[in-house]
Amino acid sequence: MTRADLEARYRELVLHELPRRAREGRWVVTNDHCFGRIVLDHAVGGRWYDVLDRRRSPAFAQLSDDQLAGAVAMAERVLAEGDPLLRELNARSLAWRGKPPKTTTTPTPRTTTPRTTTPRTTTRR
């Protein structure tokens, strides 16, 4: 893949494919900027803004060819493996920022209990 191909694939994954799949699967992360944070952090091995110039946009364009290829490979892996991998990567990214991992609980299915009802009486006005 050429660098232009890698950059195009990065954009497609981070801005479109991952957020779409995340919303469909109810993953822990669904926003494109969060996917960007997670993938960039892992590409540089820490907080991306400690390594890259946050004032120069887009940040992924500042990655070396090897880092960019690694970022695309990581994003492809998240796309394939889904929420369990994403939770691990997100927790590590947040830890690099001194933040606790995002904890979400899967909603417990509601069970309905039979209710006894009393017939309604209606009053006409």
Could you explain the architecture of this structure?
The chain has 125 residues and is mainly α. The protein is built from 5 helices and no strands. It has helices spanning 3-25, 32-44, 48-51, 65-81, 83-96. Helix 1 crosses helix 2 (32-44) and helix 2 (32-44) packs across helix 4 (65-81). It is globular. The N and C termini lie far apart (76 Å). Residues 105-115 have low confidence and may be disordered.
Short description:
With 125 residues, this protein is an all-alpha fold.
Summarize the SSE layout with pairings.
Blueprint: H1 3-25, H2 32-44, H3 48-51, H4 65-81, H5 83-96
Helix pairs in contact: 1-2, 1-4, 2-4, 2-5
Unreliable stretches (pLDDT < 50, length at least 5) are 105-115
Whole-number average pLDDT? Answer: 88
Radius of gyration: 22 Å
Structural category:
mainly alpha
Helix content: 55-70%
Structural shape: globular
N-to-C CA distance: 76 Å
Total of DSSP H or I helical runs spanning 4+ residues: 5
* Number of β-strand runs: 0
Share of residues in strands = under 5%
- Main sheet summary: none
Secondary-structure element string: HHHHH
